[in-house]
């Protein structure tokens, strides 16, 4: 039996609920994420631009991907672009490809093409939903270009949804007189703050239960230690729990003790 399977079985788990591949399957809707969803619902009713920020590991990408997966494809055309892998020139080409078209060679031609594509979707009564992840990496040039590309209807209604996601610094990046016309198009914004201590406990327990395990595997004070060390950040909680299960299995322990969780915390922060 492989190691992974062994430490799942020790705790009655059918699989490891704390690894990245299972993040959407075990989506935990905290009060923070419920508020983010409320903001998104409002944005989809009004259309225009929305901004979602938060520190790494807060659940921004998972929340957006889940929201996009539930959209009616007859009404929406969702597009996801991550800026960490794209330079300015790649961005326009990727946007047009994701919209289902072949990009042009010249930048000005791509401007007009994006406007034309959005108009075609409007005629089909389909709303393009453009999600730009890691938007704090957007250059000033792209921000100015987006203002021109998407503002061709001037003061009429918006026929697109643009969602910018990134670190809290994204808000600072959008300040300044040069971005005032862009900011005026922002319908809603929200900064994810993370889980509360009670929600961290619920988050861990719900994942264990959904994977077929028991919640009676912790010594007193262990969950509190996870709260303190993780700042109630879901990604760090997951990594800590993954290490804890692995260490406990190596020690042939069916209980996650304070010593085990301390070792897991030390591994997590490396």
Sheet with the most strands: spatial strand order: 2-3-4-1-5
Strand content: 5-15%
CATH architecture of the largest domain: 3-Layer(aba) Sandwich
Category by helix and strand content? alpha/beta
Number of helices: 12
Give the CA-based shape. Answer: elongated
Could you outline the blueprint of secondary structure elements for this entry?
Elements: H1 3-10, H2 31-46, E1 48-54, H3 60-69, E2 76-82, H4 88-98, H5 107-123, E3 127-133, H6 140-150, E4 161-166, H7 169-173, H8 180-183, E5 186-192, H9 197-210, H10 222-230, H11 234-250, H12 258-268
Parallel strand pairs: 1-4, 1-5, 2-3, 3-4
Which descriptors would you attach to this protein?
about 270 residues, alpha/beta, Helicase, Ruva Protein, domain 3, Rossmann fold, 5-stranded parallel sheet, 12 helices, elongated
């Amino acid at each position: 039996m492989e190691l992974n399977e062994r430490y799942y079985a020790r705790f009655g788990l059918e699989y490891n609920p704390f690894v990245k591949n299972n993040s959407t399957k075990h989506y935990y809707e905290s009060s923070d994420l419920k508020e983010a969803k409320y903001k998104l619902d409002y944005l989809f009713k009004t259309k225009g631009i929305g901004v979602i920020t938060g520190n790494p590991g807060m659940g921004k990408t998972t929340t957006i991907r889940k929201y996009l997966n539930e959209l009616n494809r007859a009404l929406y055309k969702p597009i996801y672009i991550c800026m960490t892998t794209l330079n300015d020139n790649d961005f326009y080409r990727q946007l047009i490809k994701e919209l289902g078209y072949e990009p042009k060679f010249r930048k000005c031609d791509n401007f007009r093409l994006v406007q034309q594509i959005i108009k075609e979707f409007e005629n089909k009564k389909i709303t393009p939903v453009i999600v730009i992840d890691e938007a704090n990496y957007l250059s000033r040039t792209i921000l100015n270009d987006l203002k021109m590309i998407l503002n061709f209807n001037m003061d009429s209604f918006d026929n697109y949804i643009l969602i910018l996601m990134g670190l809290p610094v994204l808000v600072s990046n959008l300040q300044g007189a040069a971005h005032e016309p862009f900011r005026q198009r922002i319908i809603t914004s929200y900064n994810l703050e993370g889980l509360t201590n009670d929600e961290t406990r619920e988050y861990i327990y719900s994942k264990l239960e959904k994977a077929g395990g028991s919640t009676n595997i912790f010594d007193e004070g262990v969950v509190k230690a996870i709260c303190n060390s993780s700042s109630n950040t879901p990604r760090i909680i997951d990594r800590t729990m993954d290490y804890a299960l692995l260490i406990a299995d190596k020690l042939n322990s069916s209980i996650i003790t304070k010593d085990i969780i301390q070792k897991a915390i030390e591994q997590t922060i490396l």
